[in-house]
Specification:
The chain is an alpha/beta fold. The protein contains five helices and seven strands; from the N terminus they run H-E-E-H-E-H-E-H-E-E-E-H.
Length: 210
């Protein structure tokens, strides 16, 4: 009897350990998926010059299906449907970092967000935070998973430091660049700061081809 109980407890411990440590592990996804040169959509600015960006940050999702996660995702859906933004930005710590929650599933959490915006038909720009790469996969791995979603903007335009860096061009009716909104995963790096400084301030003609 003692042996059976001991084996049963060991099996339970192994299951709990796997749920905690292995939950939705996406480690090395970036080795098979590159976002270098991935296309970034261009957005038109209306005649009034208005362009609406809706930002969400620090959602710290556990699996996409916990009670807290479901409330968070429902709130995002409601805001997008009510505000009807031109672009959504999800900036920093979308996924929980180091934690001991046995429900943690990184892949499921990422898929929950990606699926939500696909259902809404909403373009959204992802900007990684440090928590996103702390457990069961790096920020580069998160970006690799998100690259499968058509409405998610992740790209590595200049092959600089960090998981993502890109400019989102906003075009005036006359075809010139209105703004270049940039996003990156580690803006404190010198090469990214240089990229942001030049691209954000740049004003240039832009040709749209059909």
């Amino acid at each position: 009897m003692k042996i059976k109980i001991g084996v049963g407890l060991l099996a339970l411990l192994l299951v709990l350990t796997c749920l905690t440590a292995c939950g939705g592990d996406i480690t090395d996804r970036a080795q098979n998926t590159s976002v270098f040169g991935r296309a970034v959509p261009t957005f038109d600015v209306d005649a009034s010059g208005d362009f609406t960006i809706l930002q969400f940050t620090d959602t710290h999702l556990i699996s996409g299906s916990t009670g807290k996660d479901e409330k968070t995702l429902a709130a995002i859906r409601t805001q997008v449907e009510e505000q009807r933004p031109d672009l959504v930005v999800v900036s920093g710590d979308m996924i929980e970092g180091n934690n001991v929650d046995p429900r943690f599933n990184k892949l499921a959490a990422i898929e929950a967000v990606g699926t939500l915006f696909e259902e809404l038909g909403q373009y959204w720009a992802y900007v990684p935070g440090n928590n996103d790469g702390e457990k069961n996969g790096s920020t580069e791995d998160v970006v690799a998973v998100l690259a499968a979603y058509n409405h998610c903007i992740v790209a590595d335009e200049e092959n600089l430091t960090g998981a993502t860096q890109y400019a989102v061009d906003l075009l005036r009716a006359d075809g010139t660049l209105a703004h270049a909104y940039t996003a990156g995963s580690a803006a404190y790096y010198t090469d990214l700061l240089a990229f942001f400084g030049t691209s954000a301030a740049e004003e240039k003609p832009y040709t749209v081809s059909s």
